[in-house]
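Internal QA ticket QA-208
Title: Verify multi-chain structure generation after dependency bump
Assignee: T.L.

Test input:
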Amino acid sequence: MTVKQLTLPELTEACVRLGIGGVGLWREPVQAYGVDAAARLVRAAGLTVTSLCRGGFLTAVDAAERARALADNHAAIDEAATLGTDTLILVSGGLPAGSRDLAAARERIADALTVLAPYAAGRGVRLAIEPLHPMYASDRCVVSTLTQALDLAERFPSSQVGVVVDTYHIWWDDTAPSAVTRAGATDRIHAFQLADWTTPLPAGVLNGRGQIGDGAIDLRAWRDLVDAAGYGGAIEVELFNDGLWARDGVEVLRETAIRFVEHVVPKK
Amino acid sequence: MTVKQLTLPELTEACVRLGIGGVGLWREPVQAYGVDAAARLVRAAGLTVTSLCRGGFLTAVDAAERARALADNHAAIDEAATLGTDTLILVSGGLPAGSRDLAAARERIADALTVLAPYAAGRGVRLAIEPLHPMYASDRCVVSTLTQALDLAERFPSSQVGVVVDTYHIWWDDTAPSAVTRAGATDRIHAFQLADWTTPLPAGVLNGRGQIGDGAIDLRAWRDLVDAAGYGGAIEVELFNDGLWARDGVEVLRETAIRFVEHVVPKK
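Actual output:
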């Protein structure tokens, strides 16, 4: 998504040229390209698919809506398996229209996971619950903190359900560092994503994630923390940013790689 | 601020007509009208000044900037005393330019409070730390949760430093209800403010607070919780909303009173 202006072939070629060994994919461009074709393309390029984004939106009360959400998540799991990634990222969903009950919505997510987690495990896919910044709590994701995500995940085996550590969503939270340690101790950090926090936020607050190094987050400190928690997986950079999307995608990817080295790679 | 389109005389007159017995004031319109004159106006109308908003912005590193902030807070305390309110609300301040250290910024707030709290107490004014929604953590307030606010407040006597419970800022937080109980147990709920959460958020995310009943927050549940915690003070409605500001202020105040009865006053 950081460079959604690139086609999948352009993206894989640019990754290979820059020495980026893995790529996190989103469902929509993969579906548009064809899931099997995308899997072949990425495999032929020698790239790992680090994660597929995203399943989730599991908070509906209405039975038909709920059934549709579960079917869509089954499809997402199948797509992840076809792409050869072991991680499907879940954005849980917001409050149903007219509801003000966050706790009940969170409980419906747990209910859905009891169905989805074993199905995913049967296909070699882990589900990774992503807490989203509290500014998305009503309309996008009722799971707002890493602790809430872990409380949900820990009802299931760590091989089935874990969490996403995304700096953009949790950087402000002084309880998040200990939650990272807790997640690492039970092998539940299934993905680690970076974006920086910049202001002012744009209307709708979706597409204002800052390029690495442009914002308020001490990204190297978070990387050190996640390292210390025992995480050895990929580090993804996920920027939703109208400014970056308006630029040449290969140039943005190159800039992002430079910023990653400057701000995230350990200094020695 | 909910009806900032009204002059202070219009505001006090409308409050009296609607049977609203108290009003929270902001410094800027009070200063423009004259602090002594505002105090006389409100007193003559028989209204209580429930709180003065706001002091704070105490996170500067630069010595001159820090001295200016302390002087401004001393002035705010004096203004609160002149207005006859016992509560000055503090918005702590964001990260200084170029800093990424939230913990150090929070510590500088505590340092400033050691100077300000006794000064305020000498004038019969309590300082109320307001946690702001995490979307303001970088540029406005590094205190993002009620627990963080309480951790700061509890370093001082409860007669000197407490917290603000504002539904807009904490509604998403599943740890906030227990923090409300903790705050009530030590008499640290110094103000209780209501606003509803509506989306999409506007650019800059400052002026999108929802009218009571328009959004995702179960306001009556929060009121019950704050009641149960032993709070017996005023309930303020504080809406920053471009749409409401564009309308007739008296009409907005009347609507707000109706919404308050519909959505906040206990049903029996």
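Spot checks passed. The first strand of chain A starts at residue 22 and ends at 26.
Status: verified.
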